[in-house]
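Hey,
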Amino acid sequence: MTAYDLARGLHVLAVIAWMAGMLFLPRLFAYDVEQNDKPEPLRSEMQGLLRTWQVRLLRIIINPAMFLAWGFGLWLIHIDVQARGWGFLAEPWMITKLAGVFLLSAWHGYLAGERKRIAAGTSQRSARYWRMTNEIPFLLAIVMVLSVTTEWTFG
């Protein structure tokens, strides 16, 4: 096993954990918003439970997985730079992959901020909104995975 194989395997595992959390968190937000129509004390009890899950999901799974995915990804870039030089970072497939990483990281930040707004009762998002945006991480993953596995270029 080479360092590249180890870095790639650990990167894939971290990305799987990150994606799992990113796909589940908006669903928890949708369930939370749906509780607003329920009578007390059921509403408070369920929202309390859902908000505890949201915090734990972010702190225990999503945040650490993102940092590990970034770390192992940077390790892969370091190994590739030594083998290929810096030029591969300007390839269309790598630019696409990196753009996807930045977009996914921005979506992560948005979700973390929205969790705070939901807890404070200031979020204006509906359950429908959360269900519609739930697939954003998966769509980004499709683009990123296909870019890396095909290493497509122009011409």
